[in-house]
Amino acid sequence: MIPINSYRQFVAELIAHAKAKAQIEDQIFTRLAVTESQLTNILKDQAGIVVAGNIPGADYSNTPGYFTSTGECLLMVLEKMPEDYQGTEREYDRYAVLQELMVEIVRVLMNHDGFHLFCDKGEVDTSRPLTVEWEYNTYGGFNGLSITFRLKDKDV
User: Fold this and answer.
1) How many independent structural domains does the chain possess?
2) Which of 66, 74, 140, 143 has the fewest CB neighbours in a 10 Å radius?
């Protein structure tokens, strides 16, 4: 199981790196939670761009001589947009900013050493596809994109 503080550090550094690569000037907040209801409560009054996600658990496997663990991760690049943005160019401009950030996150994660760049505790499982999807009106009115991926623990 990836240590929680190592995962938090990884997410913070991943977002800082992706923000710089995408040349985004907006402040980006990071919020991680154990459950969806906790995340909804954390996000309810949040303004601006937020990267929200879960704190991964672990699936353990036995391999001759040792065992391994993998954790399912979900990160979302979200923003609560004003109602008057719906269907306007401003809405699509904001989606474009969120998409640029997500593209840079994917680039780091798809690099076989992506997780290792920021944390020596594990690596991204690239044997499975990373899945990116659009999100609408989630966690109390946020829109954006989500990505799911698996992390493999090195210290089991």
Assistant:
1) 1
2) 66
CA dist 118 and 102 (Å) reads 17
Average of pLDDT values for 16-42? Answer: 93
Closest CA to 81 of 112, 50, 103, 60: 50
Nearby residues of 136 by Cβ (< 8 Å), 6 or more positions away: 143
pLDDT digits (tens, 9 = 90+) for 135-156: 999 998 899 999 999 888 765 5
What's the domain range around 134? 4-153
Confidence (pTM): 0.86
Residue 32 DSSP code: E
User: What's the number of CA atoms in the CB half-sphere (13 Å) around residue 84?
Assistant: 0
- Of 113 and 30, more confident: 30
Question: How far apart, in whole angstroms, are the C-alpha atoms of residue 32 and residue 75?
Answer: 9
